[in-house]
Amino acid sequence: MPAPADPPDAAAGATGPTGPLPPSARVRVVPTARAAVRRPSRTEEIDAGTPLGEAYVRSLLREQLRNGLVAVAVLALTVGSLPAVFYLAPDLAGVRVLGVPLAWAVLAGAVYPFLFVIGWVVVRRAEAVERDFAELVAREAGEPGGGDRR
Amino acid sequence: MNGGIDPTWGGAAVAAVVLLTLAISTWGLRISRTTSDFFVASRRVRARTNASAIGGEYVSAASFLGVAGLVLAFGAEMLWYPVGWTAGYLVLLALVAAPLRRSGAYTLPDFAEARLVSPTVRAACALLVVAIGWLYLVPQFQGAGITLAAVTGAPTWLGGPVVALVVLVGVASGGMRSITVVQAFQYWLKLTALLAPLAVLVVVWAGDGRPLPADLDEGAGDATWSTPFGGGLAGLADGPVGLYLTYSVIVATFLGAMGLPHVVVRFYTNPDGRAARRTTLGVLGLLGLFYLLPPVYGALGRVYDTDAGPDGADTMVLRLPGLMTDGTLADVLTAVITAGAFAAFLSTSSGLTIAVAGVLSQAVTRGVPRGSTRRPDPVTAFRVGAVLAATVPCAAALAAPGLPVARSVGLAFAVAASTFCPLLLLGIWWRGLTDVGALAGLVAGGAGSGVGVVAALVVDPASVGWGAALLTQPAAWSVPLAFAVMVGVSLATARRVPPGVDRFMVRLHTPEDVELDRG
């Protein structure tokens, strides 16, 4: 393969709940005897595909999907509804904004800054969700706290 | 027909753009050494440069010449094309940009294979990339022919081969790194080449004391050029059929941008998912800026280019300075616009050629086992792929000089929206997608939108009934069909969900600075 793409994750399912567990994988999942005493960190939960780790990833996915779908819904309800509005209210054709017909003022002008603003909000919210996720999973991984660590 | 435009000015403008492009490409050749440089510019392109590059690549002949021509010929209804081309990036930004970058795949077929672990789906995607790429390349070469003929009086067939040759020299020598610089430069060139003449022309218009184009509607009966669903304009459908056509264009453009091969390939040049998102936001701004301009050309054309029908629409932007001014001013303005138009052909064709060549060269090298002496080295394979990628559509453009430029680009969007859009959205957000489901959806969407491509060549453009509308603008039904088939068949084959899907979701959605096992 000429492209420098990362190799597909062949063994990725070994630890996930949907895949079979080959005997060798178990060694990789449950770390050392010492670590077995303490509670695994949240990134380890995710790597091991435990129900808790799964829950972290699923909630991240849900938040990001909601963020994206809200933006698309706003787009559909505003810009996407314009043809129907113009169709159902033909009188709008006569409306002028500073001498420019309404359809032109909207479709050849106002719509572009509007799209950019939606995009800007999407980026801000998506990055905030990622920050929250990073903080959440780092909270126990970074600090030895909990007193369980011998 | 040129209104007395001196052909040497147009010729000089074309030559200048071609030479500048080649010069920057050669400069790129010196700095592009590794295979990774060649394909993805080693993933070190900054968000601002990358946004300009994507904008430069995206603003094609259809945007530069086609939109103004369509607006002139068909009125306000056509404003939906540029709106849709921009809104497509918003959908891409909201749902696809960051996960696509994080997938680590370089092309759409790579993504499909990594997500679904299926060589068959990969092959289907490769086929679609080539089909969409060629469908998009044909109008670029056609536009080049029309432009060169309009400004220099050269034969119409000449422009396509000229653009193909320059693109091949640039792509085959410098690869992605130099192309990135060229594309970024060409966005700003195109913006300037449209903005500066427009400023002059608007002043001329104001000085002439001519009416607002909308006021020409008064006394023209019901032919309402300035309002949507005017009908009665050159056979444009009105009533419910018109509404269907508008929504079909909206579906195709809003959802098709994410499936264009030359757009997708750009996302792998971002350093990480966050940068991919910011790049896309930048593109959204740059496109919004650019698309303010072509409709104004359309409006001025409405005032000055009173006797041109749809036939002359594609060259209206080039003829407008000659119609509104004369002497050296007209020559200079025409030359500037011509330079911008050629930049549009070159940049879009380069991006498409790279995307198609990447897929073709992967197909060539995959057949030969790793380590075999007969296995061509990747860069050679890429160059062979590039030649194939550019010459086939160039020949097609020569053989069939047909559709209006913006129209055939619209068909490429319809195919992309009906195939890659469901594949990407479901692949990124739904664990339940299976290889069989994806394949069935790609076939259903591809066949549905493919009907539109054939119909556009066969159906008489003057027919405005439901049958013609459903056939020539299929996106409003073919996209939902593709989604339904993909979801339905995946649910029926739920046991085939690839075992690694949970780890793949971690890779797609978690920020890179969190240390996780991403497979």
UniProtKB/TrEMBL annotation, chain A:
Residues 1-25 are annotated as: Disordered. Residues 8-25 have a biased composition (Low complexity). The chain crosses the membrane at residues 68-89, 101-123. Keywords: Membrane, Transmembrane, Transmembrane helix. It comes from the Bacteria. This is DUF485 domain-containing protein. The lineage of its organism: Bacteria, Bacillati, Actinomycetota, Actinomycetes, Propionibacteriales.
TrEMBL record, chain B:
This is Cation acetate symporter. Keywords: Cell membrane, Membrane, Symport, Transmembrane, Transmembrane helix, Transport. Gene3D superfamilies: Sodium/glucose cotransporter. It comes from the Bacteria. Belongs to the sodium:solute symporter (SSF) (TC 2.A.21) family. PANTHER family: CATION_ACETATE SYMPORTER ACTP, SODIUM/PROLINE SYMPORTER-RELATED. It is found in: Cell membrane. The chain crosses the membrane at residues 12-32, 53-74, 80-100, 120-137, 157-175, 187-207, 244-268, 280-300, 332-360, 381-403, 409-429, 436-459, 475-494. The lineage of its organism: Bacteria, Bacillati, Actinomycetota, Actinomycetes, Propionibacteriales. It is a multi-pass membrane protein. The keyword Nucleotide-binding does not apply.
